[in-house]
Design brief:
The protein is α/β, with parallel strands linked by helices and about 375 residues long. The chain has two domains: about 240 residues, Aspartate Aminotransferase, domain 2 (3-Layer(aba) Sandwich); about 130 residues, Alpha-Beta Complex (Aspartate Aminotransferase, domain 1), CATH 3.90.1150.10. It contains 13 helices and 14 strands.
């Protein structure tokens, strides 16, 4: 699905030098590479504070811990997303309120959020799924009207630009009260292990999240709050510092691959190519098709037979996962989410996609549908 080896080969000398300098310095934890990457990412995102941490799940957990929520408080979360988004809510003894997503963009909307708000709602976690921002301006308006906090899960859309009605542009993840991301190796900005970060423009929240991520201490051995141990190590920060310089190029390369897929599949009636949010650029962490007429599983089997990898993100709604059984009423169902789980399939998309590789993928997809058409005749 991704070609991390090819990507590494292209920047090998820079990566090797950065890693070797880190090893030679022996500042493996909280070294200068971490501080430099933090500042560089703040500048790239146009945000006041970046707090590096150990992974994207920790980033979400720390963000929620900083909001002074109480056991049983409700946090709205899309039902069509990776488990981590809701997992941390339940872990903190909060109540995940799982809601629908827009069936075209796969993202949560302001209208969906507002319909789920109750007196116990304290926060919402919009997930910028597959590489494009939710429409954040109306979401922030709803949050302000109801006095709830917004934590953006930006693990899949770092580098995406969101355009506001006033003509200004901001990076996804910097619009809510807090933004989070993951640097898992396959992400658009990925390290060579685990890593994550939290963003905010709120000085008070930033100070609190830094304390939480560092055992609840602002001063060594003086612990003001109950915290966790979550940090980005220096070697990973050194790698990310190199790759951050290429992030916009990586996003552009992914869009080029997506454009070729779009053009190739535009005349296949059973396929719906990815929709684009009007206010957001798409950085295509995944290229996700919808396959109609119950053909998704058949297409995946066909692709497997031709050595074309594919993935289904996500095959089961969050509310049908056994882990959340106690939090979901009997018979609870969200029809759009269930439809998406039965229709979506993601094709390979990455920065090193060779033209002949993509042509093989496209040809394999077309073969499946042309074969079905001939059978029907």
């Amino acid at each position: 699905m991704v070609d991390l080896k090819g990507q590494y080969a292209r920047i090998k000398s820079e990566i090797d030098r950065a890693v070797l300098e880190c090893i030679e310095s022996t500042a493996f934890i909280n070294g200068p590479q971490v501080h430099k990457f933090q500042k560089d990412l703040e500048q790239y995102l146009g945000v006041r504070h970046v707090i590096p941490c150990a992974n994207g799940t920790d980033a979400l957990q720390i963000a929620l811990m900083a909001l002074n929520l109480n056991e049983g408080d409700e946090v709205i979360v899309p039902s069509f997303t990776y488990v981590a988004t809701a997992e941390v809510i339940a872990l903190l003894k909060l109540k995940p309120v799982m809601v629908e997503v827009d069936e075209h963009t796969f993202n949560i909307t302001a209208e969906i959020i507002e319909s789920a708000i109750t007196p116990r709602t304290k926060a919402v976690v919009p997930v910028h799924l597959f590489g494009q921002s939710c429409d954040m301006e109306p979401i922030m308006a709803v949050a302000k009207r109801h006095g709830i906090s917004v934590v953006e899960d930006n693990a899949q859309a770092i580098g995406s630009d969101y355009g506001s009605a006033d003509g200004t542009t901001r990076k996804a993840g910097t619009i809510g009260h807090i933004g989070t991301t993951s640097f898992f190796p396959s992400k658009n900005l990925g390290c060579y292990g685990d890593g994550g970060a939290i963003f905010t423009n709120d000085d008070e929240l930033a100070a609190k999240m830094r304390m939480i991520a560092n055992h609840g201490q602002a001063k060594k051995y003086y612990h003001s709050v109950i915290g966790v141990n979550s940090r980005l190590d220096s070697i990973q920060a050194a790698i990310l510092g190199v790759k951050l310089q290429y992030l916009d190029e990586y996003c552009s390369a992914r869009r080029s691959v997506a454009d070729k897929y779009d053009a190739a599949f535009s005349n296949i009636d059973e396929l719906q190519t990815p929709a684009r949010e009007l206010n957001s650029t798409h950085v295509f962490h995944q290229y996700t098709l919808r396959v109609g007429d119950g053909n998704r599983n058949g297409l995946q089997e066909h692709l497997n037979a031709r050595n074309v990898p594919s993935m289904i993100y996500y095959p089961v709604p969050l509310y049908k996962q056994e882990a959340f059984a106690a939090a979901v009423p009997d018979g609870f169902s969200l029809p759009v989410t269930e439809k998406l789980c039965n229709e979506v399939i993601s094709l390979p998309i990455h920065t090193e996609m060779a033209a002949e590789t993509q042509e093989h993928i496209i040809r394999s997809v077309k073969e499946f549908f042309s074969g079905r058409s001939q059978t029907a005749q």
